[in-house]
Amino acid sequence: LTHTLQGQALLRRFVVDVCGCQTLWTAANIIDDQIARVREQVGDDEVILGLSGGVDSSVVAALLHKAIGEKLTCVFVDTGLLRWQEGDQVMAMFAEHMGVKVVRVNAADRYFAALEGVNDPEAKRKIIGNLFVEIFDEESNKLKNAKWLAQGTIYPDVIESAGSKTGKAQVIKSHHNVGGLPEHMKLGLVEPLRELFKDEVRRRGVELGLPR
């Protein structure tokens, strides 16, 4: 769409003029629909979310906070691999400015020890993802009332991890939020972004008040 000359005009011509579809969707009413779905799914239960500070989990945090408020608890694992003071910025944005309940776990030493001597990118991703799940599991066990696990899974994650319904796609790269959760975690899954692409997620974030 963005890499084709007049790509948006071509698509609009096909969808609106040829197919006769109505352009009823806006970022605002899609968010309202997602909020309604989350409320219907979780009811009065509490939800836990792994907040990385990246686009996907940040949008999920903002969306769920708007949907269920204090029933959301975010766990921010500070891996020591973030940009300078990024951990403090995450806490300032969500805990201080937005009022989201965030638990910060300083895990830099554990990550540095686990990654020492590892050079292969896929091996690093596996270690980072597995250790995140391990730490997140430790923290979730402290939250006895949490019944749901929210994730920032987006559609490219599903595709790249060969996690589609057919199971026939080739693995491009692994994602710890697709098929990497321990079986003993008896939590329901909340994935409000699972059917969205990255640019759509960013637009939801702007609409929810997150910085561009």
TrEMBL record:
Any one GO molecular function term: GMP synthase activity
Q: Which InterPro entries match?
A: GMPS_ATP_PPase_dom (IPR025777), NAD/GMP_synthase (IPR022310), Rossmann-like_a/b/a_fold (IPR014729)
Pfam family example for this protein? NAD_synthase
An example GO CC term for this entry is: cytosol
Is Ligase there in the keyword field?
A: yes
Q: Which residues bind ATP?
A: S52, G53, G54, V55, D56, S57, S58
Nucleotide-binding as a keyword of this entry, yes or no, is yes
Q: Where is the GMPS ATP-PPase domain?
A: 25-212
In terms of PANTHER family, this protein maps to: GMP SYNTHASE [GLUTAMINE-HYDROLYZING], GMP SYNTHASE-RELATED
Q: What is this protein called?
A: GMP synthase [glutamine-hydrolyzing]
Q: Which organism is it from?
A: Stenotrophomonas maltophilia (Pseudomonas maltophilia)
User: What lineage is this protein's organism placed in?
Assistant: Bacteria, Pseudomonadati, Pseudomonadota, Gammaproteobacteria, Lysobacterales
GN (gene name): guaA
